[in-house]
Amino acid sequence: MLMLPNMYKIAGELTPTVFHVAARSLAAQGLSIFGDHQDVMAARTTGFAMLSSATVQEAHDLALVAHAATLQSRVPFMHFFDGFRTSHEVNKIVRLSDDTLRKLVDDKHILAHLERSLNPNNPVIRGTAQNPDTYFQGRESVNSYYQAVPIIVQQKMDELAAETGRQYRLFDTFGDPEADTLIISMGSGSSTIRETVEWLNANRDGRYGGIVVRLYRPFCFEAFLNAVPRSVKRIAVLDRTKEPGSNGEPLYQDVVTTLAQALTDGRIDDMPLVTGGRYGLSSKEFTPAMVKAILDDLGGEAPKRRFTVGIKDDITHLSLDYDPSFNIEKDNVVRAMFYGLGADGTVGANKNSIKIIGADPDRYGQAYFVYDSKKSGAQTVSHLRFGPEPIDAPYLLQSANFIGCHQFEFVYSSDLLSKAADGATLLLNSPYEPDAVWDQLPEKLQQQIADKRIQLFTIDAYRVAREAGMGRRINTIMQVCFFKLAGVMDTDAAIGEIKKAIEKTYGKKGREIVERNFAAVDAALAYLHEVPVDPSRLSSIGDKPVVPEIAPIFVRDVTAEMMAGRGDELPVSKLPVDGTYPSATSQWEKRSIAQFIPEWIEDNCIQCGNCSFVCPHAAIRAKFCHEEDLAGAPEGFQYMWISARGFPEMRYVLQVYPDDCTGCNLCVDACPVRETDESGNEVRALRLVDKEPILEQQRANLDWFEKLEWNKRSEIDFSNVRGVQFLQPLFEFSGACSGCGETPY
Amino acid sequence: MLMLPNMYKIAGELTPTVFHVAARSLAAQGLSIFGDHQDVMAARTTGFAMLSSATVQEAHDLALVAHAATLQSRVPFMHFFDGFRTSHEVNKIVRLSDDTLRKLVDDKHILAHLERSLNPNNPVIRGTAQNPDTYFQGRESVNSYYQAVPIIVQQKMDELAAETGRQYRLFDTFGDPEADTLIISMGSGSSTIRETVEWLNANRDGRYGGIVVRLYRPFCFEAFLNAVPRSVKRIAVLDRTKEPGSNGEPLYQDVVTTLAQALTDGRIDDMPLVTGGRYGLSSKEFTPAMVKAILDDLGGEAPKRRFTVGIKDDITHLSLDYDPSFNIEKDNVVRAMFYGLGADGTVGANKNSIKIIGADPDRYGQAYFVYDSKKSGAQTVSHLRFGPEPIDAPYLLQSANFIGCHQFEFVYSSDLLSKAADGATLLLNSPYEPDAVWDQLPEKLQQQIADKRIQLFTIDAYRVAREAGMGRRINTIMQVCFFKLAGVMDTDAAIGEIKKAIEKTYGKKGREIVERNFAAVDAALAYLHEVPVDPSRLSSIGDKPVVPEIAPIFVRDVTAEMMAGRGDELPVSKLPVDGTYPSATSQWEKRSIAQFIPEWIEDNCIQCGNCSFVCPHAAIRAKFCHEEDLAGAPEGFQYMWISARGFPEMRYVLQVYPDDCTGCNLCVDACPVRETDESGNEVRALRLVDKEPILEQQRANLDWFEKLEWNKRSEIDFSNVRGVQFLQPLFEFSGACSGCGETPY
Ligand code: SF4
Ligand code: SF4
Ligand code: SF4
Ligand code: SF4
């Protein structure tokens, strides 16, 4: 955004330039780092040419086209593709050779570019001030350069096709050449549309088509008109952006304008019905089911002139309903989902799996990794596809035939099987013996397993890792089980490749580490067991409630749904219109992401308050109270005589919030008590310990601690660190990842 | 531009806001501070509502509507009007009363606004981060607020009408209610269109109409459709902006989209032919002649689908030809033009004249002041209209019946009578006796006077001022003559008002100054004489060439035309496509704006180089040369023995560039020679003197000085100020005004 003024100048001065943009949302009611076209659309006024790539391969190919075209045309380019969706997608692509690069870029244009650079030997002036007498003429002097761009871009695309066989056009038409119904779009969504349209044409006798826009600016009237099948009666134009107050989103306006011009010119006989929709804002999923909803609406009695898809708009009712069960995932594609923790190596192992599988020239792979809102320490879900053909399905798995759950807790908190296909495989990393696993599962999951005839497997990967001397590193172990169960390639061959990767990664760290990894890999399959499924024996274990009943309504209705991963289903009416949220809601989000938390050794504590002061999350706090207030406290509740003269009846309490602490260790580092006792042992007042064993005790302690009143400001000396720490913290539980404390406030 | 990211947030958070914007050009191939809609159009993506005012009165009225509407709707507003054209126009308007302000703004909306402010007693969070799960829903949650805006704005406009009688609509239609041809536009250009359309309908049997857009965002489909007469067959949409590569400028796209939707909905039967044009970029004039050209083209066989108007585009041939002689200035309007120098008080006197005339409730006045590109010291042309009805003609005078030329030199450099009506009055401030004036005029001007039957008057205003003890202050003197000759009101009454103004301005400075001014006013008419016109006696004096023959081609073809005030006529092909200009052209622009220039007293000079060092315009320079190089120098050429041992044959020369110096006095201030001789006189090496008496001598000296070679870098010690000053300056003659040195480099 802040480049916009410069972009006007770059374009005005006809300076060959390419900006490669992973297009993203703009901060409006809230900030979002995810993907849509709002940022590039905000720059469409600048005079930059705009070239859009829909897939990872295209982003690679059209990057070259953009560079070649800008050098020849002198018009600067924005080459953009969907942020996160395309920019963070792992896919197998064909790389362009240096020869191809050289063929498309003419040296003479590079030379001409260099000759235009500022040079004291041949001085010129740029960036002058112009007055009413000449500015307008100057602004019009570039017209012919813009007229040439579409021709040059198509020429470069043709040259690329000659080199690589991959043919692109300014506007590419797909589907039925005699289509009566068309969807026009730009970016990754086009691939979803193409896939769906082709499926519906093949399986449901559809007469559907689509156009994917590649060169959006300059918008070429002729090329667009040539791309529209003459048979078309109805068109939906999709924009991945929103401009409130506009008379239709940008691409929609461009399409309607062009068609209306064509009608006036007699180039078409009738004006097709054109609707315009918004989709995919901020990386909102765009699936075949939504494409079908658009086509169904368009084929109906009264198509919605303006619509949204992918959300439920229960206020202005613009949204189209769609059937989430509509699924066109291909049978010859292995679709695997993995639930892991941010730091447990799941994502890394998955990337490695893709490499292994993709190395086979007849196998293709794609992966997409969904991170929780909180950067680290939280859940990541990997979506992997493998198949015999290039994979161009730019949306998350709609139907998985393999689900790996790498942390057992997720059986209680995540709807692991919501996307599971009938007969899919579920692999659980569980601490229980194979015959004990079933009874530990919540009833709802058991029911799903039975209904969907899921094959259930288990492995105690942490045990395997431990026994192989690998601590808590379970990623390769789970990877081996995946290869065994998913049947995507020969298991032995896969294990060979996994070992090669281990060699490469750990080779330098010494033979021993490599051997330990090898041992874990070799042991993995021995610990992999099928779990007998017994639908007659249900556990009656319920799901964990996300927030307690006593949480405020907004938290229960909105925040909790987001925490439970059901934010997508929140209707528009549940969201604040102006991005104003109630405060103090993060206390309800018990993320419990720490594996280790600090333990207070009260006898050693000098009550300095440093620990509480440095905690970026307000997860360790101090209070003082009267000894009477401790009557009835849980057994094991920790406290000390307060170190202040004249208050013999007062007690000092330091309490860790065990489910909010991120285990960052800052408090332990900050604690000044560092002595060595007679036996040479370190004496500390805080130390990091395994959370699990003390969790229940600390939770009980916390309950009591929270009942203690906050100390009154009038009773506190806040001229020192210790005193300030008795105040109620007004910013708490930031949601940042452990350690960095980013975004605490 | 740099506010854009914030504007997205302000809109996203539904914060009532009004930006009042004097809309301006954006820097592209060159920077321009003048007016068009590029900046506000760049912000149309942000979600701000956009309200456009076409006149000074509207800017006043709709400012209130914007504030009232934003408070009620919560949608922020950009209220914009044409930069310079409207923002710098002087016109007589009716002021809104505080009562009206109170009636339109409801206290409860102000209160609600205040209650939404951040407040520690009722904390909320705004500006959070949102993820794919909820951002899209949040973005859609504002829809109903935008739907309400057009209704609220119209309601506020109606309330304003009830209070003031001035009725505005979201889209105001004018001209023939059964129009077949329509021009749609926004901003001040609409007034020109209305005036022309009404004139053509009345005088040429036109069936023309127009729509002026007031609420541009949110764009109201219904209101727009209701504003379009059903009879319309052809429409031209005008945009005062340019977005290279777009499929039509923004308003054009909006109109076409709306009509195409209406066609599909069966709301209209046929799609009208719609063309789109750009006009008025960077305050390019937009006149009735151009409106007529648009209507003529639209009525022709093959209207240009996309066009420009106001320039000559000889490359892409988009421009419409127009007949500059087409003129619809009203006979009952006095149209007066004044040519003055930036600092000679002409503009101030004109503003005062408007006040005097406008004080009469039945008289209206308008003024527009055209400043030369260089801020000060250069020509200003005032365009004034006075008449019995409110004046809404937002373009410069097309036909003047009074022309005042306040500096005699302009008869040689300016085409004073190009806009003169037949029988108009020309008043010259001239140093010549009435019967000598005629023979001093250039032949071309004499011919124009004869052809247009101009009445010629003269006054030696500088003499009147001198004799009244007012130095060079001629403004009130010329003002008196204007009132006498223009007949816009009773001369005696006007003189009474002028004297009142003098009292007010100078009263505090003492009676004497007031009396001197009174004397000048009283004397003025005695020195005003009609000049006998004798077409049989032509002077054969030619126009001064703007630049010498030896100037480079670009300077002669382009720069000189701009300097001569003919830049508007330069066709597109003459302008560099990328804003790249040859350097070292300012040396050809001899502005000669200084009244005083430094004189070098060589005998006192210590050759320190300070003067040359501080000059922001490189207008005083030093060279050294061999005594032989001075053989043949003009008599009076100034030089000194160089103050350096061992070079007895070398001479030091310091030369002022008399036509480039701005008279800023910096060099004189910087000269360290400040002594007092025996007789108590100040001894200086530089002093500021009247330019006129020494101009010819100094020009001759400069000619010789320029022939002296630049001193070679190898012969110069540039470790000190003096040495550096022998180098050729690479930045010279900045074009800045005197003194400030703004934009020298
Ligand atoms: S480990 Fe980090 S998050 Fe936990 S209490 Fe200590 S400082 Fe706070
Ligand atoms: S930093 Fe250590 S000594 Fe200080 S209050 Fe915390 S635990 Fe006690
Ligand atoms: S008066 Fe100013 S512009 Fe003129 S020569 Fe001196 S410093 Fe330069
Ligand atoms: S500043 Fe004065 S003394 Fe120095 S060179 Fe200039 S005129 Fe001479």
Annotation keywords:
homodimer, 745 residues, alpha/beta, Rossmann fold, Pyruvate-ferredoxin Oxidoreductase, domain 3, 5 domains, eight-stranded mixed β-sheet, seven-stranded mixed β-sheet, 24 helices, 28 strands, binds iron/sulfur cluster
Structure description:
The structure is a homodimer of 745-residue chains. By secondary structure, chain A is α/β, with parallel strands linked by helices. The first copy, chain A, has 5 domains: 4-164, 3-Layer(aba) Sandwich (Rossmann fold), CATH 3.40.50.970; 171-320, Rossmann fold (3-Layer(aba) Sandwich), CATH 3.40.50; 334-508, Pyruvate-ferredoxin oxidoreductase, PFOR, domain III (Pyruvate-ferredoxin Oxidoreductase, domain 3), CATH 3.40.920.10; 553-588, Pyruvate-ferredoxin Oxidoreductase, domain 4; 596-724, Alpha-Beta Plaits, CATH 3.30.70.20. Helix content of chain A is 34%, strand content 19%. Chains A and B meet through helix 1, helix 2, strand 5, helix 6 and helix 7 of A and helix 1, helix 2, strand 5, helix 6 and helix 7 of B. Strand 21 (581-582) of chain A pairs antiparallel with strand 5 of chain B. Residues 600, 605-611, 654, 670-671, 673, 685-686 of chain A line the site of one iron/sulfur cluster (SF4).
